[in-house]
From TrEMBL:
<feature type="transmembrane region" description="Helical">
    <location>
        <begin position="367"/>
        <end position="387"/>
    </location>
</feature>
<feature type="transmembrane region" description="Helical">
    <location>
        <begin position="478"/>
        <end position="497"/>
    </location>
</feature>
<feature type="transmembrane region" description="Helical">
    <location>
        <begin position="112"/>
        <end position="130"/>
    </location>
</feature>
<feature type="transmembrane region" description="Helical">
    <location>
        <begin position="6"/>
        <end position="27"/>
    </location>
</feature>
<dbReference type="Pfam" id="PF13520">
    <property type="entry name" value="AA_permease_2"/>
</dbReference>
<feature type="transmembrane region" description="Helical">
    <location>
        <begin position="71"/>
        <end position="100"/>
    </location>
</feature>
<feature type="transmembrane region" description="Helical">
    <location>
        <begin position="142"/>
        <end position="163"/>
    </location>
</feature>
<feature type="transmembrane region" description="Helical">
    <location>
        <begin position="399"/>
        <end position="421"/>
    </location>
</feature>
<feature type="transmembrane region" description="Helical">
    <location>
        <begin position="433"/>
        <end position="458"/>
    </location>
</feature>
<keyword id="KW-0472">Membrane</keyword>
<keyword id="KW-1133">Transmembrane helix</keyword>
<feature type="transmembrane region" description="Helical">
    <location>
        <begin position="187"/>
        <end position="204"/>
    </location>
</feature>
<dbReference type="GO" id="GO:0016020">
    <property type="term" value="C:membrane"/>
</dbReference>
<protein>
    <recommendedName>
        <fullName>Amino acid permease/ SLC12A domain-containing protein</fullName>
    </recommendedName>
</protein>
<dbReference type="GO" id="GO:0015179">
    <property type="term" value="F:L-amino acid transmembrane transporter activity"/>
</dbReference>
<dbReference type="InterPro" id="IPR002293">
    <property type="entry name" value="AA/rel_permease1"/>
</dbReference>
<feature type="transmembrane region" description="Helical">
    <location>
        <begin position="225"/>
        <end position="246"/>
    </location>
</feature>
Length: 558
């Protein structure tokens, strides 16, 4: 609302975000089920795997590349963007702000930063020691978030019906004659508003990043994405209408106000003598929701960074790319194997229970990738200490939306159009999706992504010109600097590889040996259940990689 200055335009932006989300979901489902392609039982076909956008960019943009596409330029660009910005720093900050508000404690900069580092550490430890526990927590918090959104919608309906005996603003805000009055004349405000909208809608592509962790991905991923997107679109639109019914426009235009807090204050606040009680309850709910985002993002981002490490473009790729069994099952197995240990003798009766079978709790987790994820999360939390926690959250959200959502989203949209309009690709023989819907989705997603990419370079004229924690050009400048660093990283690798070839006569090779099985259903399609990756510098004349120096990476089978 602060960017558009208009109720009608704000709701239209949310509706545009819904269309953008549907188009993006369609693209990701098509890419996820059609790429990468492998030969299985004599036929080339798309076999889903983890990595999401990384896989799709590598499939489409194969040039420029080093030595038979061993290392692609697009891999380095994606890696730099996702490693630096694909973290949970923003969510950690907002989680701590809401937590301190719920506790009625002062949200000082140092307190928020310290708690944010602790929250990031806890989330990484959960996923490092229990893959199943991390998934369960993510599902639990997702349910809580849906129930919270439903609560807002129901409360909005009750307020409109006069249950809270307070004034409502449905006519003032939503009537056609009023809703578009006073719309902003500043293009920068609209750009900021759309970046915020696509950040809220982002998440439809998250299943694609962890397809290797999903059993029967061809069945579950499309169905889960469609159901999830439908629920989110419906609830988000209804929640925004509920806000417009209860909260006056003038209050929403005040940058010091939180619309959700005003909503609860004007509804539940009328039923309580203590005005702070509803706000503290809401802050507690929002803290729970934010921690759920942290847990889910940690699970997904660690898998993506593991896939990046498998490309061999990071230092210590074996450490960052392998999986380790640090789970509770390993701890149980040690106790049960040592019959004379104190814990075994003390809890012998409990350890014999079938539900404490170590095999049931033994799971491999990407420990190295989790450490990489935690490191850059802490760096981003500390790098924004000169800003207030709220301003830092806004900056981090804009950077993520601009780079990960908009720029990379634009790239995969152009990639789909390239596949559809290129006669050499013969994409119609590789994809079973409707060509018209595929091209339409790609155009919509490309236009929606290109808008903030270009419009962010237009300087502000109104309130954004005089107010703001950082300069107006910070988001696009930092984003393109990170992407440019990916290009520099690629060129540096080429320089180093050329030097090794001249000096030692060796070339860098990456060999991935996937393991396939059939979907656990009668005559089911193939699924990838594991992968061995060989990374080595080998003599130019050699064909096979040096297994001695290779890194072995495998994933849990499903």
């Amino acid at each position: 609302m602060l960017g558009t200055q208009s109720v009608g335009v704000t709701l239209l932006f949310w509706a545009a975000g819904a269309v953008y989300t549907i188009a993006g979901a369609h693209l990701n489902i098509e890419f996820g089920l059609s790429t990468p392609r492998h030969e299985f039982e004599g036929r080339w076909q798309g076999i889903p795997r983890s990595g999401g956008t990384l896989n799709y960019l590598q499939y489409v943009f194969k040039w420029p590349a080093y030595r038979q596409r061993t290392v692609l330029l697009v891999s380095c660009i994606f890696a730099m963007a996702y490693i630096v910005l694909g973290n949970m720093a923003g969510n950690c900050l907002i989680f701590c702000i809401h937590t301190l508000q719920a506790a009625n404690a002062p949200a000082s900069n140092s307190a928020v930063r310290g708690l944010a580092v602790a929250a990031a550490t806890l989330a990484c430890l959960i996923h490092a020691f229990s893959r199943r526990g991390g998934i369960w927590l993510g599902n639990f918090f997702a349910l809580i978030k849906v129930l919270m959104l439903l609560l807002v919608v129901i409360v909005g309906i009750c307020a409109w019906a006069g249950v809270f005996h307070t004034e409502t603003y449905a006519y003032q805000n939503l009537a056609v004659n009023n809703s578009f009055k006073g719309a902003s004349q500043d293009s920068y405000g609209y750009t900021s508003a759309f970046l915020a909208v696509i950040f809220a809608w982002s998440g439809f592509d998250q299943p694609n990043y962890v397809l290797g962790e999903i059993g029967t991905p061809r069945k579950k991923m499309p169905r889960g994405t469609i159901i999830g997107v439908s629920i989110v679109i419906t609830l988000y639109l209804l929640v925004n209408i509920a806000y417009m019914v209860v909260v006056p426009k003038e209050a929403q235009l005040n940058p010091e106000n939180n619309v959700a807090h005003l909503f609860f204050k004007l509804t539940f606040g009328s039923l309580s003598k203590d005005d702070t009680q509803p706000l503290r309850i809401l802050s507690a709910f929002m803290a729970i929701s934010s921690f759920g985002n942290i847990v889910v993002m940690t699970f997904i981002a660690a898998r993506v960074k593991q896939e990046i490490a498998k490309e061999g473009i990071l230092p210590f790729p074996k450490f960052f790319g392998q999986t380790k069994n640090l789970s509770f099952g390993r701890f149980l197995n040690r106790i049960q194997s040592d019959k004379h240990s104190f814990l075994n003798r003390m809890f012998h009766w409990l350890l014999k229970q079938p539900w404490l079978d170590p095999q049931e709790h033994s799971q491999e987790t990407p420990f190295g990738a989790l450490f990489l994820h935690w490191t850059f999360t802490v760096i981003m939390i500390l790098a924004t200490t000169h800003l207030s926690p709220t301003d830092a959250y806004g900056v981090l959200v804009n950077l993520y939306s601009y780079t990960i959502v908009a720029v990379l989203g634009f790239a995969i949209a152009i990639g789909m159009l390239k596949l559809r309009f290129s006669s050499r690709e013969r994409w119609q023989t590789k994809s079973s999706f409707n060509p018209f819907l595929s091209i339409l989705s790609a155009f919509i997603f490309a236009i929606g992504s290109a808008y903030p990419i270009v419009a962010s370079w237009v300087p502000p004229m109104g309130v954004f010109a005089t107010h703001g924690a950082v300069a107006w050009y910070t988001t696009p400048t930092v984003s393109w600097s990170i992407l440019t660093f990916g290009v520099v990283w690629y060129l540096a690798f080429l320089t180093y590889a050329s030097r090794r070839l001249r000096k030692d006569g060796v070339e860098f090779q990456v060999q991935k040996v996937p393991e396939f099985d059939r979907d656990p259903q009668p005559d089911g399609p193939p699924v990838q259940i594991g992968e061995t990756v060989f990374l080595a510098w080998v003599a130019k004349e050699c064909i096979r990689p040096m297994v001695n120096n290779a890194g072995h990476v495998s994933r849990e089978s499903f």
